[in-house]
Amino acid sequence: MTSTLVTGIAELVTNDPAVGDGSPLGVLRGAAVVAEDGRVRWTGPAAAAPAADRRVDVGGRAVVPGFVDSHSHLVFAGDRAAEFAARMAGQPYDGGGIATTVAATRRAGAAELGGLAAARVAEMRAQGTTTVEVKSGYGLTVEHEVASLTAAAAVTSETTFLGAHVVPPGAAREEYLALVTGEMLRACAPLARWIDVFCEPGSARAFDGDEARAVLTAGRAAGLGLRVHGNQLGPGPGVQLAVELGAASVDHCTHLSDADVAALADGDTVATLLPGVEFATRSPYPDGRGLLDAGVTVALATDCNPGTCYSSSMPLMIALAVREMHLTPAEALWAATAGGARALRRTDVGTLAVGARADLAVLAAPSSVHLAYRPGVPIASALEL
Ligand SMILES: N=CN[C@@H](CCC(=O)O)C(=O)O
Ligand SMILES: [Zn+2]
């Protein structure tokens, strides 16, 4: 196997607190990395780097773990630019537009869906994302959910069955729930690692606490890990249900009670914040600072989807988390890398500790603070080794 020495690294963020400056980011300056067989084999001061077969000099740039985007809906056709424009003119977001995307996605063939998902993953990689979770949820029939998960599985191993996104137009709620927890789950489980549910009792289209529990327990019985869309549009049972059932992550967390925060702090469920959603729906941001201060593990993700956030940019999420949710630049970077890995229960990504995957993102900047300091400037990209 060919080994590669990456050198000329002004600042290396390892997310390994055992190395470097002792902070959670494990920062080394004037550093180098040796990668071999897709894994990190060595990190340390450039002057002490071992020999390798190839050498890549990044010329004084910062290198960070590739971003782990633990929440996306990349398999969809069409877009909802008109809905976005109407929202910016004052229309509220209520999830009604999901039906528009379901219709477009059902019309698209498997090849088109696969091409769209692959192009979006490439767009993410060009911005530094090296691991992405991809959900179904715009098919909402057995056939179209299978097609969506097939497209997702072609681009990532982190696939999520989201048949319980909404009750599709024209379907009866009870019958649809029986389908999602029965035939659709049986068809989709072999293609998925996770199951997710949009738990939002205030929405006529999404699912209440009892329905979400039924979806999650059926998914668990089918061997899937659990994820929840919770507390996005208003207060609700999503967060506490996720913690009670041992979900890996509960995502959005925009409207939390003190009891929700306490449950997250005591539990093993990551709170994944999606600040691009609040940006694009002009909604109040979650209290990211409060969650961290309470001891909750926080991840950041894009939620890239055509309705609430059509952005694939993890650097934008970092900038929003710093500006709008009062995370420090270091906390936001950790949440976008190691936090995302925790939300996916992965120990091989989101870190550049020895043995981890050699998923590196290089920044056209001397320090990772520039991710938040230079919003909108495309400084991050995955380093091709
Ligand atoms: N909230 C539920 N689902 C997506 C939005 C879906 C859509 O509007 O198309 C979300 O995570 O924000
Ligand atoms: Zn989502």
Automatic annotation (TrEMBL):
<feature type="binding site">
    <location>
        <position position="232"/>
    </location>
    <ligand>
        <name>4-imidazolone-5-propanoate</name>
    </ligand>
</feature>
<feature type="binding site">
    <location>
        <position position="307"/>
    </location>
    <ligand>
        <name>N-formimidoyl-L-glutamate</name>
    </ligand>
</feature>
<protein>
    <recommendedName>
        <fullName>Imidazolonepropionase</fullName>
        <ecNumber>3.5.2.7</ecNumber>
    </recommendedName>
</protein>
<dbReference type="InterPro" id="IPR006680">
    <property type="entry name" value="Amidohydro-rel"/>
</dbReference>
<dbReference type="GO" id="GO:0005506">
    <property type="term" value="F:iron ion binding"/>
</dbReference>
<feature type="binding site">
    <location>
        <position position="71"/>
    </location>
    <ligand>
        <name>Fe(3+)</name>
    </ligand>
</feature>
<feature type="binding site">
    <location>
        <position position="229"/>
    </location>
    <ligand>
        <name>Fe(3+)</name>
    </ligand>
</feature>
<keyword id="KW-0378">Hydrolase</keyword>
<feature type="binding site">
    <location>
        <position position="303"/>
    </location>
    <ligand>
        <name>Fe(3+)</name>
    </ligand>
</feature>
<feature type="binding site">
    <location>
        <position position="229"/>
    </location>
    <ligand>
        <name>Zn(2+)</name>
    </ligand>
</feature>
<dbReference type="GO" id="GO:0005737">
    <property type="term" value="C:cytoplasm"/>
</dbReference>
<feature type="binding site">
    <location>
        <position position="305"/>
    </location>
    <ligand>
        <name>N-formimidoyl-L-glutamate</name>
    </ligand>
</feature>
<dbReference type="GO" id="GO:0008270">
    <property type="term" value="F:zinc ion binding"/>
</dbReference>
<comment type="function">
    <text>Catalyzes the hydrolytic cleavage of the carbon-nitrogen bond in imidazolone-5-propanoate to yield N-formimidoyl-L-glutamate. It is the third step in the universal histidine degradation pathway.</text>
</comment>
<keyword id="KW-0862">Zinc</keyword>
<dbReference type="GO" id="GO:0019556">
    <property type="term" value="P:L-histidine catabolic process to glutamate and formamide"/>
</dbReference>
<keyword id="KW-0408">Iron</keyword>
<keyword id="KW-0963">Cytoplasm</keyword>
<dbReference type="InterPro" id="IPR011059">
    <property type="entry name" value="Metal-dep_hydrolase_composite"/>
</dbReference>
<feature type="binding site">
    <location>
        <position position="165"/>
    </location>
    <ligand>
        <name>4-imidazolone-5-propanoate</name>
    </ligand>
</feature>
<feature type="binding site">
    <location>
        <position position="303"/>
    </location>
    <ligand>
        <name>Zn(2+)</name>
    </ligand>
</feature>
<feature type="binding site">
    <location>
        <position position="71"/>
    </location>
    <ligand>
        <name>Zn(2+)</name>
    </ligand>
</feature>
<dbReference type="InterPro" id="IPR032466">
    <property type="entry name" value="Metal_Hydrolase"/>
</dbReference>
<dbReference type="Pfam" id="PF01979">
    <property type="entry name" value="Amidohydro_1"/>
</dbReference>
<keyword id="KW-0369">Histidine metabolism</keyword>
<keyword id="KW-0479">Metal-binding</keyword>
<feature type="binding site">
    <location>
        <position position="138"/>
    </location>
    <ligand>
        <name>N-formimidoyl-L-glutamate</name>
    </ligand>
</feature>
<comment type="similarity">
    <text>Belongs to the metallo-dependent hydrolases superfamily. HutI family.</text>
</comment>
<comment type="pathway">
    <text>Amino-acid degradation; L-histidine degradation into L-glutamate; N-formimidoyl-L-glutamate from L-histidine: step 3/3.</text>
</comment>
<dbReference type="GO" id="GO:0019557">
    <property type="term" value="P:L-histidine catabolic process to glutamate and formate"/>
</dbReference>
<feature type="binding site">
    <location>
        <position position="308"/>
    </location>
    <ligand>
        <name>4-imidazolone-5-propanoate</name>
    </ligand>
</feature>
<feature type="binding site">
    <location>
        <position position="80"/>
    </location>
    <ligand>
        <name>4-imidazolone-5-propanoate</name>
    </ligand>
</feature>
<feature type="binding site">
    <location>
        <position position="138"/>
    </location>
    <ligand>
        <name>4-imidazolone-5-propanoate</name>
    </ligand>
</feature>
<dbReference type="GO" id="GO:0050480">
    <property type="term" value="F:imidazolonepropionase activity"/>
</dbReference>
<dbReference type="InterPro" id="IPR005920">
    <property type="entry name" value="HutI"/>
</dbReference>
<feature type="binding site">
    <location>
        <position position="73"/>
    </location>
    <ligand>
        <name>Fe(3+)</name>
    </ligand>
</feature>
<feature type="domain" description="Amidohydrolase-related">
    <location>
        <begin position="63"/>
        <end position="364"/>
    </location>
</feature>
<feature type="binding site">
    <location>
        <position position="73"/>
    </location>
    <ligand>
        <name>Zn(2+)</name>
    </ligand>
</feature>
